[in-house]
Write a structure and sequence with these properties.
- The complex is a heterodimer of chains A (114) and B (111).
- The radius of gyration of chain A is 14 Å and the shape is globular.
- With 114 residues, chain A is mainly β.
- Chain B is mainly β and 111 residues long.
- Classes of the chains: A mainly beta (114), B mainly beta (111).
- The interface between A and B is medium-sized, with 21 and 26 residues.
């Protein structure tokens, strides 16, 4: 039962354009969402997060949007740069019970082309 | 320089042998986690520990064992009972359970 889904396994975007990575979740107990970036053969690095009390969080070129009614979040990267090429994981957690563990999606591989 | 270290980066073992993967953190984090990543899959939780001398099974604990004798250390043993041990193993730590910080990973190959 995949509670966090990233339905696009890959995405290719031209340098300078906007990258939009999507994530859907099914567990209504999730109230905190994170995005991680991962290069091959390295550990993921934390990128940005959002609490369910907000619908947007911005950090430089990265913005995460949360639509609670649709159980959907997205990561916008603008402008995209070649160094952004990596696998991006969406993760979610709740405050208690089984939802308190961090649950990861399967990842989206972003390639930023010149 | 605070962080999480995992050693070795690459590990090769023969089938039927137990192998222990090291994870050390100097971030003073209470919680530590072990994940496994396979191609095309997300990170799957093997074991986690929220406090010294206590740990819980994650989603795929069968064939693995852990110990948490010190706050800084959370070694993972891949036993011969693990049917498909070849994978990329990631250790993480967290203080309040929200942002988890990951180590560089260990690629285990069992032949």
């Amino acid at each position: 039962d995949q509670q966090v889904k990233q339905n696009s396994p890959s995405l290719s975007v031209q340098e300078g354009r906007i990258s939009i990575l999507n994530c859907d979740y099914t567990n209504s107990m999730f109230d905190y969402f994170l995005w991680y970036k991962k290069y091959p053969a390295e550990g993921p690095t934390f990128l940005i997060s959002i609490s369910s009390i907000k619908d947007k969080n911005e950090d430089g070129r990265f913005t995460v949007f949360l639509n609670k009614s649709a159980k959907h979040l997205s990561l916008h990267i603008v402008p995209s740069q070649p160094g952004d090429s990596a696998v991006y994981f969406c993760a979610a957690k709740g405050s208690w019970g089984t939802a308190s563990k961090l649950t990861f999606g399967t990842g989206t591989r972003l390639q930023v082309t010149l | 320089d605070g962080g999480i270290t995992q050693s070795p980066k690459y590990l090769f073992r023969k089938e039927g042998q137990n192998v222990t993967l090291s994870c050390e953190q100097n971030l003073n984090h209470d919680a530590m986690y072990w994940y496994r990543q396979d191609p095309g899959q997300g990170l799957r939780l093997i074991y986690y520990s929220q406090i010294v001398n206590d740990f819980q099974k994650g989603d795929i604990a069968e064939g693995y064992s852990v110990s948490r004798e010190k706050k800084e250390s959370f070694p993972l043993t891949v036993t011969s009972a693990q049917k498909n041990p070849t994978a990329f193993y990631l250790c993480a730590s967290a203080n309040d359970g929200y942002e988890q910080y990951f180590g560089p990973g260990t690629r285990l190959t069992v032949t």
